[in-house]
Amino acid sequence: MVLETLFVTTAAKTIGIVGSTLWLIPLILAGLTYVNYDRLDPEAPVIDARILDKDYDFVVVGGGSAGAVVASRLSEVPDWKVLLLEAGPDENEISDVPSLAAYLQLSKLDWTYKTEYTGRACMGMKSGRCNWPRGKVLGGSSVLNYMLYVRGNRHDYDLWEQLGNPGWNYDNVLRYFKKSEDNRNPYLTQTPYHEKGGLLTVQESPWRTPLVVAFLEAGLEMGYPIRDINGAEQAGFMIAQGTIRRGSRCSTGKAFLRPIRLRKNIHIALNSHVTRVLINPTTMRAFGVEFIRNGKKQVVLARKEVILAAGAINTPQILMVSGVGPKRELRKHGIPVLRDLPVGENLQDHVGMGGLTFRIDRPVSIVQDRFQAFPMTMQYILRQTGPMTTLGGVEGLAFVNTYLGNRSWPDIQFHMAPASVNSDAGARVRKVLGLTDELYDAVYKPIANQDVYTLMPLLLRPRSRGWVRLRDKNPLSPPLIHANYFDDPIDIKTLVEGAKIAINISKARAFEKFGSRLHSIPFPNCAEHEFRSDAYWECHIRTISMTIYHPVGTCKMGPEWDQGAVVDPWLRVYGVKGLRIIDASIMPTIPSGNTNAPTIMVGEKGADMVKEDWMTNRQSVNSERQF
């Protein structure tokens, strides 16, 4: 997570030798704020349509992890005209570099959202609020994330079907995971759980430290196998796989949109911020969208459907400002109520214990001052390997069980990285996390640039539920995000058990040769608790409550009798014809693992549902259910 800081100005000369516009990277790392991303690659094919038609068959709102998939797949039907509206700009060469993930956060490619203060979490962050980066760029959060490819547990999807959503069980969704996948690890493509030849490239980073090997060996010592965590069983340890291709990030924009950019029946409009869905209040049919592009308000019509794919934060905001949402919330802001639905409820996110740091004596971890820019940069540019190909710094993944869970459905995930908050001497990671100076200076500054590794316990199935609300009726205002972490006490109890397991992993024989030991400077705000006690670990978790940016569930999928549902199992909005949602917001419960791959799966399955409905003339009328 800290390789982002390793470039220095010398790299400019290196990159300039090979004639690449990547020479801008050192300038960004030197702290320049204003960068003209449009000039980073002047020879790249134009993907931004300058002139739009008045109407299309389908208007897809949001070009992120799901929206890029939906637009690409719908444009496979040559008779359909598809428009994809994305609020942000195109990707750039900086986003291509896997190790630079954190440098995209808090940039113009990020919505820069923050959670609201609760006093129960994020206490070590400025103003007690966690940063929630979300991608405002073609490819969405698949451009900002750490590229980890994790599908979740088979029980997650079987539960979706048990909740009244036919067709969403594991066996059905597995084929959509495989449909996208181009897995380049031969030992996996020989199994029935993976595929090669799809549009989305998945592989291991070509570079790793010896610490990840020790991590796998430690798992074996604890009785967990080294296994494909996306295969038959999930509990176990594995070298992380990610959405990278030849050492570069493979976002959904690169995977699903670049190959079809010359199709005549799809237009992509960048920097197009959708402000509302146009809905006829008499017929209750969505017939188009209103958006702002380059400062001008525009309207485009949809002959068949408007498809919202703006994500778990923006999709509910767009719906509410359009008059679809909780009656009380809309009336509070003076928005006419077209359909009373529980939009914005059921918010779920994976929250983890950040900052758990283990010191070592051998020079094998990622330390800013150790890497030389010239050879490292040449290694990446000429051979697509080296430290710059790491998945944001994460090398190993594991799924384990606390006594509160069960063996077949782990409740804790570990992200293992050969670095921690101190590894870049406070240059970037502390800013991305939003840590207070008091906390950083007291705990991490004394070990700045020293060799460490981290194990981050992540709560896989939180019981707590948050919500998204409108700040006001202005569609350009950021929404209110209430993560509501640790509202249910079982959540933090489970994470405390995860912390204990992490410490046991660090004590394994495999880590002894590195001199592994827990960093023992206590958090200032937790000093009243005995260090290493359950009370101390709970305080630590509440202090660095680390999201890894997996919000889902705010437009819940469910059957007609589910009073918490916004869309039916075919992802059609209840009571509004011609309006569908295909993104992470439809997930009734959060998958047990990183959510990018499941969101892409939702895009694949949702696109097939649209095709099936319209190509078989089976567009059934949505339920007129009242709430």
Automatic annotation (TrEMBL):
Residues 135-158, 311-325 form the Glucose-methanol-choline oxidoreductase N-terminal domain. GO terms for molecular function: flavin adenine dinucleotide binding; oxidoreductase activity, acting on CH-OH group of donors. PROSITE patterns: GMC_OXRED_1, GMC_OXRED_2. It holds the Pfam family GMC_oxred_N. This is Glucose-methanol-choline oxidoreductase N-terminal domain-containing protein. Keywords: FAD, Flavoprotein. Belongs to the GMC oxidoreductase family. Coiled coil: none annotated. InterPro entries: FAD/NAD-bd_sf (IPR036188), GMC_OxRdtase (IPR012132), GMC_OxRdtase_N (IPR000172), GMC_OxRtase_C (IPR007867). FAD binds at residues 137, 274.
